[in-house]
Amino acid sequence: MSEAAEEQQQLRVVVADDQAAVREPLAAVLALADDIDVVAAAANGDEVLAAVAAGRVDVVLMDLRMPVMDGIEATRRLAEQHPEVAVVVLTTFADDDSILGALGAGARGYLTKNAGRQDITRAIRAAAAGQSVLDREVQDRLLATARTRVPAPGQPLPDDLTPREREVLTLIGQGLPNRGIAEKLFISEATVKTHINNLFAKAGIRDRADAVRRAIEAGLA
């Protein structure tokens, strides 16, 4: 493979964290992955927007609590100005306001800083491919929050969902990741992804957090 082809396949990533002691080691660790090119490190949301404006960026790994402009506002502006850039939140905060604020602003993934390097690189790759990744703590928090609220009447599920697609939605609503769904249904992860893509397209579901909400509204979770 040519150097040009290899460069095209690399994911261009910006690492944003206001603490240099976190930002710099994280950037160095991510750069060890063959398919990740850390193109910039940012200390606040303004620097993130400047880095994205300066050249192609695929994914921003975003801290939430930063000076000048925080991660939620930076995520919101990226969604408006550069919707092609995926945001994966990496933060110490897993409270309702942080999670819902970041996902509502357009973040495609949400990890806590307990996540390991493999979890982070997997989330970056998934986000670049248009998938949502929430770590288990965040999924559990979303489920707990949704179940303690009386859901407003939502859009009903379409009648053309297959029984298998309903099963998959039920398991998403229970907080299972793709691997857990595959093991539960005795199918491959690739087949799970196909069912999820079909389910999301039919039901107009935006992301995994939206799928959890829809499952709860439909009484499936």
Give an overview of the whole structure.
- GO terms for molecular function: DNA binding.
- Residues 154-219 form the HTH luxR-type domain.
- The modification 4-aspartylphosphate is found at residue 63.
- Residues 12-128 form the Response regulatory domain.
- InterPro entries: CheY-like_superfamily, NreC/VraR/RcsB-like_REC, Sig_transdc_resp-reg_receiver, Tscrpt_reg_LuxR_C, WalR-like.
- The protein has 221 residues and is an alpha/beta fold.
- The chain folds into two domains: 11-148, Rossmann fold, CATH 3.40.50.2300; 163-218, Arc Repressor Mutant, subunit A, CATH 1.10.10.
- The protein has eleven helices and six strands.
- The chain has helices at residues 3-9, 20-30, 45-54, 71-81, 96-105, 117-128, 136-148, 163-173, 178-185, 189-203, 208-217; strands at residues 11-16, 36-42, 59-62, 86-91, 109-112, 133-134.
- It has a six-stranded parallel sheet with strand order 2-1-3-4-5-6, with helices on both faces.
- Helix 3 (45-54) packs parallel to helix 4 (71-81), helix 8 packs across helix 10 and helix 9 (178-185) crosses helix 10.
- Mean pLDDT is 86; it is low at 1-8.
